[in-house]
């Protein structure tokens, strides 16, 4: 079902609400001179209240232009998973004649809000956003602006516009059931999102729910105030095993951390999975060259990026498109559990 688009607020409306001419409002927004501070503040108050975003393209070319820009925002540009999504998305959009403007928000709602305000001033044709949560101001701004938006990575049943992703809670729940079915009972968790909880927190919740259904919980947890990385997984595994040497399995936030944990175990001559089992999430390419196939959840970043691009372009063109598109995942048993 197509979203009902609201008309964008224009400069004339801002000027009228502030009780000034359109020229004065324009000069205020360009930081020109020739008006009082009281006038400036009055115009800026109405800009904020009405959710007006200046049009940089119009300012540069003197008229509205048909945009071929798609803004894409992800948590981290350094992540190989998000890098693969960006590569797929960019390639698919290019085939439709669009180019991307990319940003990263590091799981900060405030940083994402600032990026959205800035990108909207370029009047993009649409946005692709990957974030565990949006600020109320961001959601209101996007809805008022009426721009096509595809939220990706996490499945959102009440999206701003479109949602293309998968259920992270279910991924964690499914992995827990598999690990329990293999007989493991002293299970630990290692993650790295204490500062800015991301979607790994949803997988953890799903995992815990499955444990609680069996009257269990994590025997020990180590959630680092750090980004996910090989080193974070190595260090986190060292920390949790020094604290609790009786663990028989560790579920990691993602594959990067699981791989780090795997090499820590190897450095201490711990047999995987005989002494300690290891499970991750995300199917990182580098996991394919480990001495043992990692037990993980496979996600298709290529399919996700392509589906997001196709859904967004269909919305831009006014073509029928599902509001929610589910991208499949698959548990890969591997050899580490």
UniProtKB/TrEMBL annotation:
InterPro entries per UniProt: HTH_LacI, LacI/GalR-like_sensor, Lambda_DNA-bd_dom_sf, Peripla_BP_I
Domain HTH lacI-type: 9-63
This protein's record includes keyword Secreted: no
Pfam families the UniProt entry points to: LacI (PF00356), Peripla_BP_3 (PF13377)
Transmembrane segments: none
SUPFAM superfamilies: lambda repressor-like DNA-binding domains, Periplasmic binding protein-like I
Keyword Transcription regulation attached: yes
A molecular-function term among this protein's GO annotations: DNA-binding transcription factor activity
CDD domains in the cross-refs: HTH_LacI, PBP1_GntR
Keywords: DNA-binding, Transcription, Transcription regulation
PANTHER family: LACI-RELATED TRANSCRIPTIONAL REPRESSOR (PTHR30146), TRANSCRIPTIONAL REGULATOR (PTHR30146:SF33)
Protein name: LacI family DNA-binding transcriptional regulator
Source species taxonomy: Bacteria, Pseudomonadati, Pseudomonadota, Alphaproteobacteria, Hyphomicrobiales
């Amino acid at each position: 079902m197509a979203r009902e688009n609201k008309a964008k607020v224009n400069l004339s409306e801002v000027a009228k609400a502030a009780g000034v001419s359109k020229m004065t409002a324009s000069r205020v927004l360009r930081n020109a001179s020739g008006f009082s501070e009281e006038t400036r503040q009055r115009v800026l108050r109405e800009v904020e209240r009405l959710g007006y975003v200046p049009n940089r393209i119009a300012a540069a070319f003197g008229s509205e232009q048909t945009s071929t820009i798609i803004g894409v925002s992800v948590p981290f540009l350094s992540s190989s998973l998000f890098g693969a999504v960006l590569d797929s998305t960019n390639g698919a959009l290019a085939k439709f004649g669009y180019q991307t403007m990319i940003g990263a928000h590091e799981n900060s709602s405030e940083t994402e809000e600032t990026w959205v305000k800035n990108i909207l001033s370029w009047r993009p044709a649409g946005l692709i956003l990957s974030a565990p949560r949006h600020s109320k101001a961001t959601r209101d701004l996007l809805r008022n602006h009426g721009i096509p938006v595809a939220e990706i990575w996490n499945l959102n049943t009440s999206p701003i516009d479109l949602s293309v992703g998968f259920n992270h809670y279910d991924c964690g729940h499914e992995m827990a059931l598999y690990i329990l079915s293999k007989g493991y009972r002293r299970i630990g968790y290692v993650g790295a999102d204490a500062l800015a909880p991301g979607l790994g927190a949803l997988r953890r919740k799903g995992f815990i729910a499955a444990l609680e259904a069996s009257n269990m919980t994590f025997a020990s947890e180590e959630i680092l105030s750090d980004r996910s990385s090989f080193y974070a997984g190595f260090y986190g595994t060292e920390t949790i095993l020094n604290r609790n040497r009786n663990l028989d399995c560790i579920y990691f936030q993602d594959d990067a951390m699981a791989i780090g944990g795997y090499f820590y175990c190897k450095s201490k001559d711990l047999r995987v999975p005989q002494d300690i089992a290891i499970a991750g999430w995300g199917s990182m390419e580098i996991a394919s060259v480990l001495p043992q196939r990692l037990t993980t959840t496979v996600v298709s970043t290529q399919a996700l990026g392509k589906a997001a691009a196709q859904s967004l372009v269909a919305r831009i063109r006014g073509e029928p498109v599902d509001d929610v598109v589910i991208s499949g995942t698959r548990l890969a048993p591997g050899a580490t559990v």
